[in-house]
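Quick question: what would this complex look like in 3D?
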Amino acid sequence: MTIQQQKENEPRTWILHLFIALGIAIVLAWSSTTIQLNANESSGMQVAGKILSGIFHPDVDFLFNFTNQGVAYLLLETICIAFLGTVVGAVLAVPFAFLGAANIVPHWIALISRFFVMAIRTIPAFVYGLMLIMVTGPGPFAGLLTMSLVSIGMLSKMFIEAIEDLDIRILESLDAAGCTTFQKIRYGIIPQLFPNFASTFIYRFDMNLRDATVLGLVGAGGIGAPLIFAMSSYRWNEVGAILTGLILLVLVVEYFSNKLRNKLTRG
Amino acid sequence: MSLYSRVIKPKSLILGNGKVVDEPRSKAPLVIVLFCIASLISIKITGFDMAVMFSRGGQFLVILRKMVPPEFAYMPKIWQPLFDTIKMSLLGSFVGAVLAVPFAVVASSNIVKNRFVIVFVRLLLSIVRTLPTLVTALIATYIFGLGTLAGTIAIAVFTFAYVGKLLYEEIETVDMGPFEAMQAMGANKGRSFMYAIIPQVLPSYLSNCLFCFEGNVRYASILGYVGAGGLGLILNEKIGWREYTKVGMILVMLFATVVIIETFSHWLRSKLT
């Protein structure tokens, strides 16, 4: 009896569910109007086959070529761009983070700062790349600066969260123990923020390594440019070599980054 | 004793009662030295130069200044590609998120007991995730031709890998009690999954999908650069022709769209949790 009563008391949500499903269906139908199917299916399949065979038969000489033109050097350059880009981005993000943390500055300053960061984040990477090439000329230096600009958004957002989670009681107890401002920062704030900041930094480095391929488009260094050249001239074995190198590198970096971040968060 | 404390001896402290305590040395100096070495190598390879930054830094603002004020008369021509971008990311996110579900279920070790299958699916997910979206889009343009289809597929692939990974992690940390209870009552695996696991992971799954969709709108605006449709197409064109006031207008509209979508999705996600 009680089971049946419970069953009858169950809220009737099917109307709501129906509306949600209908809404999703309409949105999907609307968005699928943009897809135009091209008629070149057969040639597409051929290209797909060639790409696959290229990936499974990478150009071994190119992959293990340790000179300036080889995959190894290009990957090293990409790592360096991503690393230094993240460093510069992190340095630039710290002031934004402190200005955006609502527990440190007045609310309206935090809002303005967040709005500004959002604007920085919206401009696509290649627009930055083109702007920065005017500053430095084409090459990895421009790529590095682009990477640092595109990292500001996420880095400062995560930093803001870390700052807003600061435990004020620790500072109060240090105050009660008679610590100076410097000591409060050294023993009260830095130990709280550092693991968070470091783990965000490593995560962003991981992402930058992936996104660094975008830079090649505008001639800002890294592995993107050779990849795109190889693709547009249909040298699929070379594409395979570059992709293999990139995938291996990202997997290795991701493995270590996960390990390090686990260590940082669990102490 | 870890390797680190074996190489660098811990500091011994003698307490008041004569007991000796080992305090491991701080790792900070080692980390700082490694960090500096990595920075120096990177500076050398990338040709980082502060002097150039200061002397030519003003050039950065040159293009930006040319974008102001944006040309409002150009606005009507932006709507179409803008909606293309939104549609691409919507459809791509949906397809990717739905495709991710079966793979995520098979990749979670508390549902599937076969080690080989789990490792295989996880490896597949990580390899797909390492492919940058732009590269996927480029490959897709070769296979499916130029246009929005290629962009949609690139976004779907990225969403698939991203949501798939988050979902299997979510499924693995779920409370298995209800699942076991349902199995004990005689429900089969599918039914127990349906009524014991799905209600637990659904809110975070939806919230991850929405978050991914937010990011995808940004990504979709770049994909046009390789001919995969959307806003990037006209953005690239206008930059090439140096019509910076139009570029400014495109960026303003992109910004407005992103703000609206993020606010909406933020609101939805806060409802979900």
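Answer marked as accepted. Chain A touches chain B through 63 residues (CB under 8 Å).
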